[in-house]
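quick one, 205 residues, struct below
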Amino acid sequence: MSRLDFTAARLLRNDSRIARMSIPQGNLLADLDGRHVALIGNARSLAETRHGADIDAADLVIRINRAPMPSPISHGSRTDWLALATRLPDADRKRLDPDRILWMSPKRKRLDWQSASGAGFYLHPLADYDALRDRLAAPPTTGAMMIDLLLRAPLASLTLYGFDFFASLSLSGRRSADDVPHDFGAEGAWVEDLLHSDSRLRLRR
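---
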């Protein structure tokens, strides 16, 4: 698809046309077969840990949105995949240098050409977003969408770092829980249920 066609499809909200640029979800999940995956959230509390070496030891490291990384001691240094729900400034794109971008937001007008035309680009289906929103009774965070997606894969393990469900707020901004549309209590309870039902999932606090 040309850049002009992409721009037109985005403005016209032609999701099926934009989706032609995406790797199929089944192929994406197959890429995770047998792998140990680290999903890095942006909780401020992660900066107080020494999880960096464990993060970098994972087979695949996935970060979220602008992914602040104040220290390799706490956050590691690798970014293999980047899950986005917001536009990525050029400086952050260069700093993170992900191999693959996953666009998770239902807001397609925020999706930029550079992300959509990159190798291995993935567009998260609106139906999957809607299903998780209904389950949580609130718009899901990018992190929740990634957990939901990744646990569908035949991966060996999924370890969460930097997830405290907004208890310490976010490194990526100064907003409070009242300033965002998510239900962090519902997401925390959902993850606790998953920890009991899926032995592949781990939460590092």
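The longest strand covers residues 36-40.
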